[in-house]
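> Could you send the PadR family transcriptional regulator prediction when you get a chance?

Sure thing. Input:
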Amino acid sequence: MALDHAILVSLLEKPGSGYELARRFDRSIGYFWTATHQQIYRVLKRMEREGWVTAREVAQRGRPDKRHYAVSEAGRAALSAWLHEPIEPESVRHDLAVKIRGAAFGDRTALLREVERYRQVHAARLAHYLAGEERDFTGPGAPGRQDAMGELQHVVLRGGIAYERMTLAWLDDVLATLHRIS
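Output:
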């Protein structure tokens, strides 16, 4: 998937400035697609040149003006065309899996530390996703969007939660195996 398409989806959900878009990537779109702020701004400029988005200047008090972006008809058409294209399932390239296989020939203690660190990262990500779900979809005071957009946002988040739980279960299996054979 190109960053262009993730930006188009985000702007269709809610038009906004490059800064606001980057914050959305940090907060929710980042559940399935990450991008740096620089990448987002660079792609926005290109998409504006190509006519996929429109931008208007918005004056701000005491700060430089900002550009507010929205998807144009050409951008909607580009997204629609992309949505109709078939995609192939991603091939898994997993550095940690190769390291685990290589542990038979090297320092298992170093690998054990790396797997524990890796597990902490995934546990933190799962906690972040669960907090987002509580905040945005299930907890008291959650917006509770029952429209198609809200339902689709939630199903993507649930996929991220399921992935993190699966990864943690696998890492627990790896750790148990490393402790058993060490």
